[in-house]
Automatic annotation (TrEMBL):
It is found in: Cell membrane. It is a multi-pass membrane protein. GO terms for cellular component: plasma membrane. Residues 94-311 form the ABC transmembrane type-1 domain. Belongs to the binding-protein-dependent transport system permease family. GO terms for biological process: transmembrane transport. The chain crosses the membrane at residues 12-30, 100-121, 133-161, 188-207, 243-270, 290-314. Coiled coil: none annotated. This is ABC transporter permease. InterPro entries: BPD_transp_1_N, MetI-like, MetI-like_sf. It comes from Sheuella amnicola.
């Protein structure tokens, strides 16, 4: 067990170092931060002084070492566009992105799960075909188009929901939330539904596939032979075994939702990290781009590491296989 954890931790550190190297390359080859910060009219003396302050005259290896050390402390320098610490900007935007991502994941589960079960149990019904067609649309349509269509219908034509912004928020320490105001809830609905559409389709098709597979197993046939009711078989036995891979996939998808909320945040002008990243790309704000890349990678690494460790803890077959291969000694 200890060797397994150490190996996964070493792999995670290796991934983060690779990401840090990629982020560092952004600083080296995407624009000159000195020119961006001082402008074209800076004197050679001012340029030389700033390069010395930023450590740009040091060897590349030394610069990368300082970059990694600072990144581990959450220090990515100043935003070239806004002149604020990048860590402060991310801390201000992170609550909005996390709130939107959790809402989208919740919608995906409460909508996709029952629809997946229904399409598995009633796979020949016309309504099931409608739901499956809906899932194809969710997978096929680009997110920005879904967002624009929802704005057109519910904001422009019907006027029911706002089309941009986060609404009124409440500050709880350094955290801000819109879930404690009615305006925050109404502003959350459209972007959360937009971001969840692909996830709903994914959960629906995954649950359907897993449910059909489980219903063919021998222990389900044995349960039917014992005379158990359909409700007990479908929800007491089949659904329980179906949920294990679904929950795992949704755990991994949460990282993807956070990372790929960029398009949704741009369409709805949602003040999260994704919108901050898009603005940073437009203005070549390298520190913000590098910090976003490292933070998203860290989220993915932590989620994947957690899932690996949970699998190892709950599945005795993995522990047995590790013991036979000598990895547990």
């Amino acid at each position: 067990m200890f060797a397994f954890i150490v190996r996964r931790l070493v792999q995670s550190v290796g991934v983060m170092l690779a990401v840090a190297l990629l982020a560092f390359v952004l600083f080296q080859f995407v624009g000159d931060p000195v020119t961006i910060m001082l402008g074209q009219e800076a004197t050679p003396t001012e340029i030389a002084e700033l390069r010395e302050q930023l450590g740009l005259n040091d060897p590349v290896v030394v610069q990368f070492y300082h970059f990694v050390v600072n990144a581990m402390q959450g220090d990515f320098g100043l935003s070239l566009r806004q002149g604020q610490k990048v860590s402060v900007l991310l801390r201000e935007r992170f609550p909005a992105t996390l709130e939107l991502s959790i809402a989208a994941a919740f919608i995906a589960l409460i909508v996709g799960l029952p629809l997946g079960v229904y399409t598995a149990l009633k796979r020949n019904s016309k309504l099931s075909q409608v739901f499956l067609g809906f899932s194809l649309l969710g997978v096929s349509l680009p997110t920005f188009l879904i967002g624009i269509l929802l704005i057109l219908v519910f904001s422009v034509m019907l006027g029911w929901l706002p089309s941009y912004g986060r609404g009124d928020t409440v500050r709880l320490g350094w955290w801000t939330t819109g879930l404690l105001t009615s305006s925050g809830w109404t502003h959350l609905i459209l972007p959360a539904v937009t971001l969840s559409m692909f996830q709903v389709a994914l959960v629906l098709r995954l649950v359907r596939s897993e449910m059909l597979e489980v219903l063919r197993t021998d222990y389900i046939k044995f349960a039917r032979a014992r005379g158990l009711t359909k409700r007990a078989i479908h929800f007491g036995h089949a659904l329980k075994n179906t949920l294990v891979p679904v929950i795992t996939i949704m755990g991994l998808q949460l990282g993807g939702i956070i990372a790929f909320a960029i398009v949704t945040e741009t369409v709805f002008q949602w003040p999260g990290m994704g919108l901050l990243f898009i603005q940073a790309v437009q203005f070549a704000d390298i520190p913000v781009m590098a910090a976003y890349l490292c933070l998203i990678s860290l989220i993915f690494v932590v989620i994947n590491l957690t899932v690996d460790l949970l699998y190892f803890a709950v599945d005795p077959r993995l522990r047995a296989g590790l013991g036979k291969s000598g990895g547990g000694h």
